[in-house]
Design a protein that fits this description.
Chain A: Keywords: ATP-binding, Cell membrane, Membrane, Nucleotide-binding, Repeat, Sugar transport, Translocase, Transport. Chain A is α/β, with parallel strands linked by helices. Helices cover 34% and strands 26% of the residues of chain A. Helices cover 77% and strands 1% of the residues of chain B. In chain B, helix 13 packs parallel to helix 15. Chain B is globular and about 60 Å long. Classes of the chains: A alpha/beta, B mainly alpha.
């Protein structure tokens, strides 16, 4: 019987109204690399937050047995003291501080007088950098290094805390191939030194390449733990485990009446706004027809939101190239107000940050994108505005005591209805809905799908971006898959299955743009 | 049981929105008692209006700047500079008074455009841009005036801030014209509130109970006519009050009823969401700063007229009074919240306190200390309210 360094037993975590984890089991053998797979929202990150003490003992049910003892972590320092270190997907480095300062942040090396001993700090930092294979001066500010190197600094930081169990959340999502390969190599060498790792990843080939075993989580349940070393057909088995739920009657029926092409995007390429040379969207081409719902399937970080926002008035990225066509005629969209006047709408995935003015009321949020419809010579007709808001409250079934209610006080589902009302009122012809049902309950989801059906029945074209495959299969006519900025496939919904989509979504297709660049170099 | 809950809710909601008005009334009452009524004497009420009009004009522009999520530290220097320009034109070059006014307004627009350019199009935070402007325009004031004060202005120019309508309709110891103007304004107010109420009922929106509505109108009429009576018994209707009233009405409408005004709130409330709703953020920010420059020049004209001179040190610390007025009047430090009327009440609270304390012979240093604490408490109240709202 191999020795387990960690056993999480029957972990159940509930948030108000949602059961994020129910009786999840995870056991990790000392010295292995253990993968965790699951769709977005399956509960992977929640599980890791329980483990690292972000959700303190007492806020969840079940036991964490680490090193043979039941642990009660109340905070991150508690778990770090035991050698459990988590590296989050969004790196937590301070950009203007040096590599050495970042490594010892919160864990400063002090001299006798209580002041920081910089010689010791830099010396130890250099040794740690050596261990992770990063050949940089410890005095370099972190923001001068690329994401791949920053990831290594995070690992060096973990090593400085005498890590025994290292948790990496999507460590290679933002890295290019070379950096990813280097990182995986490093994980192997850490394993040789006896450090156990848990790796959350969407890249199934990486899981297969590096992990000893992997646990699959779906909808807050642990499905199974697969022994990769046993070999044979692992990726298929993982995909089946990740998506294996049944499509019950969660999607309202719809008549499919598809007309002429309304909107088309060709050869769309977008670069990262701050990291020069990083391609975020790579030669994407897609189109949507009247009365059609198309889906864009991709995991987080695949460039879905970046694609949508760059089309919507160049709200994201730089050096954007490509063409957009409306009803077959090329249009140039230079800013958001032009996008709106061409009949485009973009309902964001992060409605609190980008979609709503939370301190303003329902009425004014609904009219925010189309004030020009309510105004004559710059003066807003306040009475008409109230009337419009009341109409949408009724037709979209927004549950609020009054249209004067502050939007911040509404539930997620009702906030989403306000966002949709805003864009429907702007008379959009093409609606891009980014994760339209994220963070809202099943009942409200059904209502949102009904609204989408009403929109296409009225001749609109709808583009749904989602990482929930059943949702795309239940609502779309056609589905494009996006992986690492590249459109990897296009399937009519009749031919699409979750397995096929997941394969395309996790496929690393040779990027045309980077190939061009290499050819030039 | 539900009844009490509703009453409690009603009270808390009203305290949050009208707390500032209650505080204003309380402060007036306290100082009226302490000064044995001198605070509310006809002469002093007139004086209050004349003395704080330029701060209130600045606060109108400042509240829009603050709603958009910026700040303007340069307005004191701009008041000095535009006043200086006007004085040079009128006094040194013997031009008519209105040329001086136009020159000041022109310079104010240029300054607004200059600061708007840096804030909106280059993306320099307004704090830095206007801190620079504070030094820049103070220096330009000294250059313009050769570091000496210029006076006196011709009588027409002095009248802007010191003139009155009096005896237009004859006097009987009190000015009838003042009373008539206020009565007409009051009727206009009745009409517009009645219309708002009617359309709200038509659109099935909640309104206050009819008796409450009547009580509100009676109280407002009483206060307004009492104020008119005090003015009529002193020197009549000040010109500057008409300017101020016009600005308050115009800017209340601009902020509440125009697309531009609504975009200002949208930017301050959630910049990203405003951008993704097609708001031309840069142009709106430019407009807000431009407008502040123009209003600062109006204040510059009023202040130089009131002082009957342009002084190198004019307008010192005005920016802080204007900013304090906005925050006491309920504007949020983070932007997106605030009202012109709120800023006016905030400014008047400061005015009544300073004026009341000087009537009591309180030392100027004490006045500063009290004003500082009032500002802190007002913003603390706002933060506390927001935290409670967020906790829900």
């Amino acid at each position: 019987m191999p020795k387990h360094i960690l056993e999480m037993r029957k972990i159940t975590k509930t948030f108000p109204g949602v059961k994020a984890l129910s009786a999840v089991e995870l056991s990790v053998i000392d010295g292995e690399i253990h993968g965790i797979c699951g769709e977005n929202g399956a509960g992977k990150s929640t599980l890791m937050k329980v483990l690292s003490g972000v959700y303190p003992h007492g806020t969840y049910e079940g036991d964490i047995v680490y090193d043979g003892e039941v642990q009660q972590f109340h905070s991150i320092p508690d778990s770090e003291r035991q050698g459990i270190v988590i590296i989050h997907q969004e790196l937590a480095l301070i950009p203007y501080l040096s590599v050495a300062e970042n490594i010892f942040l919160g864990n400063e090396r002090r001299g006798k007088n209580g002041m920081i001993d910089w010689n010791l700090t830099n010396h130890e930092a250099a040794k740690l950098l050596e261990q992770v294979g990063l050949h940089e001066n410890p005095l370099t500010p972190v923001n001068q290094l690329g994401v791949g190197k920053q990831q290594l600094i995070e690992i060096a930081k973990a090593l400085s805390k005498d890590v025994r169990l290292l948790i990496l959340d999507e460590p290679t999502a933002a890295l290019n191939d070379d950096d990813s390969e280097h990182l995986l190599e490093l994980l192997r060498s850490l394993k040789a030194r006896g450090i156990t790792s848990i790796m959350i990843s969407h890249k199934l080939n990486e899981i297969e390449e590096i992990c000893d075993r992997t646990t699959i989580i779906r909808d807050g349940h642990s499905i199974e733990t697969i022994d990769i070393a046993e070999g044979g057909g692992n990726q298929d088995r993982i995909i089946r485990g990740m998506v294996g739920r049944d499509l019950t009657n969660r999607y309202p029926k719809r008549e499919h009446v598809v007309g002429d092409e309304v909107f088309r995007v060709e050869d769309w390429t977008v670069y990262h706004p701050t990291q020069p040379g990083r391609v975020v969207v790579d030669n994407a081409t897609f189109s949507v027809r009247k009365g059609e719902v198309i889906g864009i399937a991709g995991v987080m970080g695949a460039g879905r939101t970046e694609l949508a926002m760059s089309i919507f008035g160049r709200s994201y990225g730089r050096d954007i190239t490509g063409r957009t066509y409306l009803h077959g005629e090329e249009i140039r969209i230079r800013d958001v107000s032009e996008a709106i006047s061409h009949g485009l709408a973009y309902a964001t995935e992060d409605r609190k940050r980008y979609g709503l003015n939370l301190i303003e009321d329902v009425r004014r949020n609904i009219s925010a994108a189309a004030l020009f419809k309510l105004a004559k010579r710059g003066w807003v007709d306040g009475n008409k505005e109230i009337k419009v808001a009341e109409e949408y409250r009724a037709s979209m079934n927004i549950k609020t005591p009054s249209v004067m209610q502050t939007v911040g006080n509404l539930s997620g589902g009702n906030q989403q209805k306000v966002v949709l009302s805003k864009w429907i009122y702007s008379d959009a012809e093409v609606l891009i809905l980014d994760e339209p049902t994220r963070g809202i309950d099943v009942g409200a989801k059904y209502e949102i799908y009904t609204i989408i059906n009403r929109l296409v029945a009225a001749g609109k074209a709808v583009i749904i971006i989602s990482s929930e495959l059943p949702e795309l299969l239940g609502t779309c006519d056609r589905i494009y898959t996006l992986a690492f900025g590249v459109v990897t496939g296009e399937l009519p919904v009749a031919e699409a299955t979750q397995e096929k989509l997941m394969t395309l979504m996790t496929q690393e297709k040779a990027s045309t743009t980077t190939m061009d660049k290499e050819a030039r170099a | 049981m539900t009844g009490t809950a509703n009453i409690r809710e009603l009270i808390t909601r009203n305290i949050r929105t009208s707390g500032i008005y209650l505080a204003f009334i309380a402060i007036i009452a306290v100082f009226a008692i302490w000064t044995d009524g001198k605070l509310l004497s006809p002469g002093n009420v007139t004086n209050l209006v004349l003395q704080y009009s330029y701060i209130l004009i600045l606060a109108i522009g400042m509240v829009m700047v603050i709603i958009a999520g910026h700040i303007d530290l340069s307005v004191g220097s701009v008041v000095a500079f535009t006043g200086a320009v006007s004085a040079v034109v009128v006094i040194r070059h013997d031009m008519p008074w209105w040329v001086g006014v136009l020159a000041a307004l022109g310079v104010g627009s240029l300054i607004g455009a200059w600061q708007g350019f840096w804030v909106a199009f280059v993306g320099i935070p307004a704090f830095i841009t206007t801190l620079s402007g504070m030094l820049l325009f103070r220096g330009l004031t000294w250059v313009t005036l050769d570091n000496i004060s210029l006076s006196p202005f011709p009588a027409e120019y002095q009248n802007i801030a010191n003139g009155f309508f009096n005896g237009v309709l004859g006097g009987n110891g009190y000015d009838v014209f003042t009373l008539v103007v206020f009565a007409i304004a009051l009727l206009g107010y009745f009409y517009s509130t009645y219309r708002t109420r009617r359309s709200r009922i038509a659109y099935e929106q909640p309104v206050e109970a009819f008796p409450l509505f009547i009580v509100k109108l009676v109280v407002v009429s009483f206060v307004v006519m009492w104020f008119a009576w005090q003015l009529a018994n002193a020197r009549g209707l000040p010109f500057v009050l008409i300017i101020l009233a016009a600005l308050i009405i115009i800017y209340s409408l601009v902020t509440q009823r125009t697309v531009f005004g609504r975009h200002v709130y949208a930017i301050g409330g959630n910049l990203s969401a405003a951008m993704l709703s097609g708001v031309k953020v840069k142009w709106v920010n430019f407009g807000v700063m431009l407008n502040m420059g123009i209003l600062a020049s109006v204040a510059g004209v009023v202040f130089s007229s009131r002082m009957n001179s342009a002084q190198p040190s004019a307008g010192n610390m005005f920016e802080l009074d204007a900013i304090a007025a906005c925050f006491i009047g309920g504007a949020a430090v983070t932007g997106g919240v605030g009202r012109v009327t709120g800023a006016m009440v905030g400014g008047l609270i400061m005015a009544v306190m300073s004026n009341g304390m000087s009537l009591l012979g309180v030392d100027q240093s004490m006045v500063q200390i009290v004003k500082g604490l009032v500002l802190l408490l007002a913003v603390a109240f706002d933060v506390y309210n927001k935290r409670r709202a967020g906790a829900r």
